[in-house]
Amino acid sequence: MKKTQNILIINAHQFYPSSEGKLNQSLVDLVKELLEEEGHQLKLTKIDDGYQIGDEVEKHEWADLIITQMPVYWFGGPWPYKKYIDEVMNELIGRRNLALSDGRSRYHDKPYGSGGLDHGKKFLLSTTWNAPKIAFDDQEQYLFAGLSQDDVMIGITSVYKFMGFEILPGFACYDVKKAPQIEEDFKRYKDKLANIFN
């Protein structure tokens, strides 16, 4: 029998008229349905609906797995998500229970970023892109020049790695404006979620 996990799902979509967030919400709903069927305990945050910093800190402390669902805006997260991360992580650092420092000391040679305390927790970033899949992992491509989508998102995943989380390989829906493959994306995501706890 699989161990029940505490899972926080963060919907980091930012509403604007040409992007209402239906796809990102549908992906959140898919995760919620599948993981509840597996018997896991879930908490949800939709940043656009507002939040209390203290509540989000407690959710981060409670969670075994955090899944952030977001559209990629200018090769990063929407600005309210950056604000959320700044506020929540600064509070967590202040409490000194996720990370004590960047890991370095005058007395040892531990690498920068290795001071996280939350070992055993996991983080998954799920993104929606206007970029096509062929834009990644190919040295011949103009913009990313061989970088994977996980490489491009390192500014987000590094936050959780700094805190000691294991970073799971990300999930992405590509080309969602010009050539969406939503049914296939949902199937791929279901397969990925089914394998997280195996």
Notes on the protein architecture:
- By secondary structure, the chain is of the alpha/beta class.
- Helix content is 36%, strand content 16%.
- The protein is built from 6 helices and 6 strands.
- Strands 1, 2, 3, 4, 5 and 6 form a 6-stranded parallel β-sheet that branches.
- Helix 1 links the parallel strand 1 and strand 2.
- The model has no long low-confidence stretch (mean pLDDT 87).
List keywords for this structure.
198 residues, single chain, 6 helices, alpha/beta, 16% strand, 6 strands, 6-stranded parallel beta sheet
Mean pLDDT: 87
State the share of residues found in helices, binned by percent.
Answer: 25-40%
**SS element count, helices:** 6
List how many beta strands DSSP finds. 6
Termini separation: 10 Å
User: What series of H and E elements makes up the topology?
Assistant: EHEHEHEHHEEH
Shape: globular
Tell me what portion of residues adopts beta-strand conformation.
Answer: 15-25%
Unreliable residue stretches:
none
CA radius of gyration is: 17 Å
The major β-sheet equals: 6 strands, parallel
Task: Reconstruct the topology from this structure.
Blueprint lengths: L5 E6 L10 H16 L3 E6 L6 H10 L2 E7 L7 H17 L26 E7 L20 H4 L1 H9 L3 E2 L3 E3 L8 H15 L2
Parallel strand pairs: 1-2, 1-3, 3-4, 4-5, 4-6
Helix pairs in contact: 1-6, 2-3
